[in-house]
Write a structure and sequence with these properties.
Blueprint (H helix, E strand, L loop, with lengths): L3 E10 L4 E10 L2 E6 L8 E4 L3 E5 L1 E6 L13 H4 L5 E7 L7 H9 L5 E6 L18 H10 L4 E8 L1 H21 L4 E5 L11 H11 L5 E3 L19 H8 L2 E2 L10 H9 L23 H10 L4 H6 L3 H6 L15 E15 L2 E16 L2 E4 L9
Parallel strand pairs: 1-4, 1-5, 6-7, 7-8, 8-9, 9-10, 10-11, 11-12
Antiparallel strand pairs: 1-2, 2-3, 5-13, 13-14, 14-15
The structure holds zinc ion.
């Protein structure tokens, strides 16, 4: 007996190089059948004619845990299952000081979350521009000791003032600690407009990629802010090419102003393609501009990236970096699926002065999680 049957969906599974129209049946939490047309009726029939069906989406860069962890951070499931995402990466919402509070919240949430520990004690409970003090690597080491197995990586937010205090030597020490614990290092790049730029800034940005290894992550890869991956004369730092070849991952983490459409287009043209497409979702941007991961995927489709590549950036790639098992749309596999609605017609991505027009966008429709179909939450504001 089928519990759920999706009818006539465009099934896109980048792990299997699958892109076809099919019915997909789910029973007892597993995929029962994937076929052109499945006979019989399920307890829940879903017309997916105007939809894409993908393996459960993973957003490697969001901020969750709710306001008890940090003022900007979102309720877990509202950034996760209720927005089409079945695996979240929390990108350093908590540092050693508020890590326990975050872990306690995650224990009560439905969406699984892989946690990057912020190397600054406060995480984003205090805005990085207002952080006091430098890097206390001992506090990071102690937090890793206390919660071994629950941390999937380290996050360093190298905006102006903190980057100056950490310096290349501090960054090398962090990288050494991450390597000892076999954890990836995720770096936030780009200074805020009101932040002073440290001396030797350009040298810092140019030399930083050489410190990183395969599996390390450069977030906000298309920021136009100083301190990103773009030189003042608007080229990607040449040192980046070698890092990408070694397997360092470029992560979009778009947020409100950590993303520039022109830089993204330049990156795609120059071969600096994203490994992961992520939102950097916070309370600042979930009702405007960013909205959710499917909206963020739509930006890259509008920039000309083919759908199977975009799909890989939100499924196979983030799961590999987060070291979570792959999810496939195949009979016999655990059913972890995301249904996205397709909208055809003129639309705009981003906000006034920082926008791109397109003809096609995706929105979350629902997920299959633990054998049930969970519809996406209604958006309180809608993209234009
Ligand atoms: Zn972030």
């Amino acid at each position: 007996m089928m519990d759920i049957c999706f009818r006539n969906a465009r099934v896109v599974d980048p792990g299997r190089q699958l892109d076809c129209r099919a019915d997909v049946a789910v029973a007892n939490g597993k995929i029962l059948e994937v076929a052109g047309s499945i006979a019989g009726r399920a307890a829940q029939e879903v017309d997916a004619s105007d939809c894409l069906l993908l393996p459960g989406l993973a957003d490697i860069h969001a901020h969750v845990g709710g306001e008890s962890v940090a003022p900007l951070s979102l309720p877990v499931d509202e950034a996760g299952l209720l927005r089409g995402v079945t695996l979240l990466g929390d990108a350093g919402t908590a540092g050693p000081r508020n890590l326990e509070r975050l872990l306690a919240v995650l224990d009560g949430a439905r969406t699984p979350v892989a946690v990057f520990l912020n190397v600054h004690e406060d995480g984003i409970a205090v805005l990085p521009q207002d952080w006091q003090g430098g890097l206390r690597i001992e506090a990071v080491r102690e937090a890793l000791d206390r919660h071994a197995g629950r941390i999937c990586g380290l996050k360093a937010m190298l905006s102006g003032a903190f980057a100056a205090r950490v310096g290349l030597e501090g960054l090398k020490a962090l990288k050494q600690l991450a390597a000892q614990r076999e954890l990836p290092l995720m770096l936030h790049l780009g200074a805020e407009p009101d932040e002073p730029l440290p001396d030797g800034w350009e040298r810092f940005c140019a030399e930083l990629p050489a410190i990183l290894d395969a599996g390390d992550i450069l977030s906000h890869c298309y920021t136009a802010k100083p301190g990103g991956l773009i030189t003042p004369d608007r080229r990607f730092y040449p040192q980046l090419r070698d890092a990408v070849r070694r397997g360092v991952a470029l992560d979009t983490a778009v947020a409100l102003r950590h993303f520039d459409f022109a830089r993204a287009r330049q990156g795609l043209d120059d071969g600096f393609v994203p490994r992961t497409i992520s939102t950097d979702l916070t309370r600042n941007n979930w009702h405007r501009c960013v909205f959710d991961l499917p909206e963020t995927m739509s930006r890259f489709l509008a920039l000309g990236m083919p759908l199977p590549e975009v799909a890989a950036c939100v499924t196979v790639a983030p799961r590999l970096l987060l070291r979570r098992p792959a999810v496939e749309i195949r009979a016999g596999e655990r059913a972890e699926l995301t249904l996205l609605r397709e909208h055809h017609g003129p639309c705009r991505f981003g906000e006034e002065g920082h926008s791109l027009s397109g003809e096609y966008r995706l929105s979350p429709e629902g997920v299959v999680w633990e054998g049930r179909y969970v519809p996406a939450a209604e958006r309180t504001a809608r993209p234009r």
